[in-house]
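Consider the following assembly input.
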Amino acid sequence: MIVRTLDEITDTEADVKSENWRSKRIILAKEGVGFSVHETTLYAGTESFFWYANHVEAVFITSGEGEIEDLATGEVHELKPGTLYLLNDADKHMVRPRTEIKCVCVFNPPVTGREVHDENGVYPLVTEPEAETTATV
Amino acid sequence: MIVRTLDEITDTEADVKSENWRSKRIILAKEGVGFSVHETTLYAGTESFFWYANHVEAVFITSGEGEIEDLATGEVHELKPGTLYLLNDADKHMVRPRTEIKCVCVFNPPVTGREVHDENGVYPLVTEPEAETTATV
């Protein structure tokens, strides 16, 4: 059993900050459980393009409001507490928080913490060699 | 892209109720993304034994307070908003919410929704045949 708090992660290398968002990675690939879990803050009034070509991501909103646009269809969905969006098809999307949004994000394959968004906004696939044998427990 | 709200799940078969807790399963094995995501309410003043012999589970607390006891070691950890516990070793544990707790739970392998706790409190391993080919995207 591993027990961690956001306070322990704050301002460590697992606390990743950008202009539009801040993501605290609580569980990463090195834990070897087949997914990673992040607590993410999206800043009010921002607009972000995301595209995870190599990862599935589920995002559950715990506070705040805004919208997500599916760039393949132009469809816009409301985001509010209790909404989950699942990017199960490498969906290119825009997120526009009207207020600050807090959310819990799950990635498969798990993020290692070494990924950076490339010029297309894509996370490259980086694997954690030591964890791979137990990644599909 | 799939977008779902807790309101859509309320009182459907994906809204599983017991004496001590209620779990709304938002993403299940049939989505084929390699994990399931549940929003769970643990009732104040209850005490529950859990043991997932066949699943890894991560639980992130979004509201409420209580404690978790690791039955292998007797160690007790505080639960409050921003705490995550990861059951990465089929950990037998007791959860004791002092107040109502809301949490987001992630399971690997994903729960199908057809599991029931057996006499030992264990979820049996049930697979979703149609999803299996894409379960490790």
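The first helix of chain A runs from residue 6 to 9. Ask yourself how this observation constrains the way the partners meet.
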